[in-house]
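Instructor's aside before we start: the two examples that follow are unrelated to each other. I chose them only because their records fit on one page, so don't look for a connection. First example below.
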Amino acid sequence: MYGYTITVNGNNPSNDGDICYKNIVCSNRMIHKFEQDKMFAETENYIIMLDGVILNRSALMEKYHFLKDESQWLNTIIELYRENGEVFFNQLRGSFSGAFYDKAADKWIVFCDQIGSKFTYYTHIGDFFCCCEEMGYMYQLLRNNGIPYHLSIDNSYLLLTYGFMLDDRTLCEEIHKINPGCYITFQNGQLTEHRYYMLNNESDYSIREEEAIEIIDHYFRQAVIRQFEKDNEYGYLHLVALSGGLDCRMTTFVAHDCGYTQQLNMTFSQTDYWDQTLPMRMSNALKHEWIFKALDNGIWLYDVDDVTRTTGGNVLYYGTAHGNSLLKYLNFERLGLEHSGQIGDVIIGSFVNTHDKENKYTIGNGAYSTKYISRLKHLPLTLDVNKELGLIYYRGFNGANNGLQNIYNYTETLSPFLDIDFIEKVLTIPVELRQNHHIYKKWILENYPRAAEYEWETTGYKITEPTIHLFNREMIIKAVPHRISSYFLRKIGVKNESNNKKQMNPVGYYIASNKDLKSYLDSYFQFNDSIDNVELRKTIKEIQETGSAMDKIQAISLLAAIKLFFV
């Protein structure tokens, strides 16, 4: 349970602590972490809710001469609104969502941050309006107010292909999500979505390699310091995710280099896989505390209902479940932000090899599975952008950010790679320098060579190993024989979905080796009979009979939502 809720013209009874004004009821469900950054307040002229962490809060308060009085954060927000109008929140930095009600104008402004890290959902039917940060709770709000709702067939196929939703879509026809960099206004019974922020990845070809490394390092260190100082402000211990990849590694190593050496590194992985052995070695060398949660036996896959109650079924559940299998056991009284390396390879690296203006993002790009993609070709897309930006917004912000939503039950989370000032600067670096992790590896080797002493989980080799270009990709020479054999096997239609447990997420192995787990997951397919749409029922039946392990997990993610919210 986290966030806030708003209902207008609803039947919700008010509780102690709620804000009630005319036909409005606002409830505070925010977790008790970083509470000086949050806001749930009513004044003579406004109702204001703000959830998350604001990294430039002190700077904004100083700007308006309120720094000496912590109680003046409310007045700072009001001054921002008076000075900047309904897009005042674009001045904020961090991970946040919120709502602002101007009583005189009878206007709601509901917003999320520039990358949409804290999802915000809403419904507008007739004169009824409600919004909430937690998708699972949105269903309860609709039920409480007698609002009928329906499973979206199109969006069910999004879950079965992408593993997440696109644009403002959810599994429910009547519920929508505010898009990253957007906000909605509700006034005079009319709801309108507006865009206030959009990334630009136009390359600056005057930037050379040396300058690119300087840009990355300056803005990354700035982002790290912003995040870790927020922990210090509240007296919290730094909780830092660490894996065998480069992204979490660089958050850990750069923070250490900046003086944040009192870290508790956190890892969840299959035992004896790179994602266990490498973090163990790195945290030991840095003299950090380290906590490890084994994912062996796939027991965490039983958490499908718990995860779905938060996500509402809008995302493939296993990606959230494996993190939750550790988080649910931690005591967060002393722990601060969860610092991650979220989508670092996407920002410093690139999804594409060219910025060809004609290379547009289209339906199917970035999907987990394309088997049923033809079922989605008719869907319109909100963004008309090049492929890289489309993948950043859809696969990165809409997809990967789903993995953050369950964390908000425990604490707030940030990644320096998602710092908006960092992203803006890095995307000006020509894609030719960013592709295949070229400038990423150069940055590490020149500025943080200690981080290069350990293998990279993606390749199994150190980034110091010599490489060649093959199949339009940069490959480590030692790995070429394996890559060539894998390439040709894929070309002749042989999929490499083994049940070998030596993988990052060996779902096939877990299901094949644990009969009780397989039986439990198979039980979800009984809810297929609750689907009215004949074609979707047939699709789920086909997945049950012939689908891969991951196909079945996608189907179970959908069926769990049907079980919890639509039956």
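Example two begins here.
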Amino acid sequence: MRTAVEIQGVPALDLLRKIFRSLLLSSIFFPSSLPLAASDLEATVARMARVGASRSPSFSPDGKTLAFVSNLTGVPQVWTIPAAGGFPTLVTSFDDPVGGVEWSPDGKWIAFSLAPGGGMNTQVYLVRPDGTGLRHLTDGGKETNRLGTFRRDGRKLALGSNRRSGAAIDAYLFDPDTGALELTIQNPGIGGFDDLSRDGKRALLNRLRYRGSNDLYLVDLATKRETLLTPHEGPGTYTGVFSPGGDVVWISSNGGRDRLAFGRITLATDGIPGPIEIVAARDDAELASFVIDDAGEKAALVWNVAGRHELAFMDLLGKGMRAGPKLPGDVVSGLMWSRDGKKLAMSVSGAVAPANIFTFEESSSSSSFSKVTDSPHPGVDLALLVSPELLTFKAHDGEPLSGWLYRPKGAKGPGPIVLSFHGGPEGQETPSFRADYQALVSRGIAVFAPNVRGSAGFGKRFVNLDNGALRANAVKDIASCVDAVVKAGVADPKRIGIMGGSYGGYMTMAGLVEYPDLFAAGADLFGVVNFKTFFKHTEPWMAAISKIEYGDPDTEGEMLDRLSPLSKVDRVTAPTLVLHGANDTNVPVIEAEQVVASLKKRGVPVEYVLFPDEGHGFQKLPNRIRSTTAIVEWFSKWLGVNPAGPS
């Protein structure tokens, strides 16, 4: 039994927590080299941008410790923390951001991915849980690598890499004991292993046909024989894992249906698969994720209901699905069971709550969530943040649309508003914490974040409504969004802004060229503006899988020109802010340069912020502060908001 040691009447563990939290709020983690805010606006925005996040939990084999990724130091790194809560330990200290993390089942290693310069040339490493013995598994060049999963005994780690061909991502197996990296399956396009069977004989290969359609294959690792598990025509989305005995594949599937559901494929002794059997589905929601416990007796399911998540549990021995407890936040990711099946770890966030690691435990008499991490929010009172409301409306052609509306507290009547479009396009706007949204709202500027056609989370039909030439209808949805917020009485028609990142940057520029009279200002964050230059300069594998989504530059060049905002950039009249990362190889910096040059030539007010140490998005603390400040200052200026506070 643990003895409580006290220092001057304060329990030692509590004192350590207080000391650590004070360090998080000090120059140790927020360096003094950062410039002091020159105005109250900058100070407010900087505080929002400093709000931390913790994600990607992974249990140690004994379930006593969790590895996770957090930006406590200003850049996402690997940490460990007791699963019962306590003092976190920094494991890595790179200048570049860490992606995912996976604790090996034998307990020897923590695997993680790292993005040099924030780019897409992701590298994979192993490190001991105490931070020693760092091993670089991939080549360290310009190739794209992906971290996969460990086999149950920890002796194999699945990786994906395009080291063989820039246009394909192949499936590899790494042996931590020998250091051997084996090219296991060559893919014609993009592929990787979803899971490895416990006996080491089989793997589940997830191979992408194109964006919006993939297949699962059962692979015999000795013969490399592939058996298709998910035959289908047209779009279809599948992910899967083996049961402990390897005789069942549990899957997420929308094959033969519109919304993703939970199902299984039973394998005969010779590996011949049976049909997909759906065992849990909802008409009002899509399956967002699932995880099977180590004994193969139960599954945790997360359902996506218009962007908010709900937890459920499935008895895999035949007792059906039951609803779980209310989550401590709106959005969940990174589900993982402890090996004994007693605890479920997850990252939970919400519009008014930064992402933190939680565990859930239940017994015959009770169940509860425990907050494991405490992501810092120095100077930000979470109680003063704004929760959004779901606004539903109809598009120009009657298609049902929805979005999340953030209104300044106490706002009455029409006022300034910014429309914010998510990336993807097959992404989804969810009510998770956004520093830029909360900073804008704190200045009296409302935010409306819609899910227009092409967004994920609403079924297979909806996510494919913007493919190819249909993209013109998604652009028309921009005007429908403006009409919705004006009719709702929250938007002043003369004070509407538009912004977005990646594909959201495309939608921003499309809105500015197609509807120049609707917008007073725009902010394009690393967005596509010219589909032909995008296809020419993006990663070859990205170009290869995007021809159905956007159009084929070899055969549909005229359509791509017509849908590219750059072809009509002379229509832009609104002042435009452009932000981009110099190391972005997804949407290369040439996209930003074309916009900036065109607008400068015509005398349209334009400001260009280029981050030399970022890729597709901004992850380092000084850059998060600078980008968020630039966005809020831009819209405050051009939407007529008093810099001293809400108008």
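The first strand starts at residue 6 and ends at 7.
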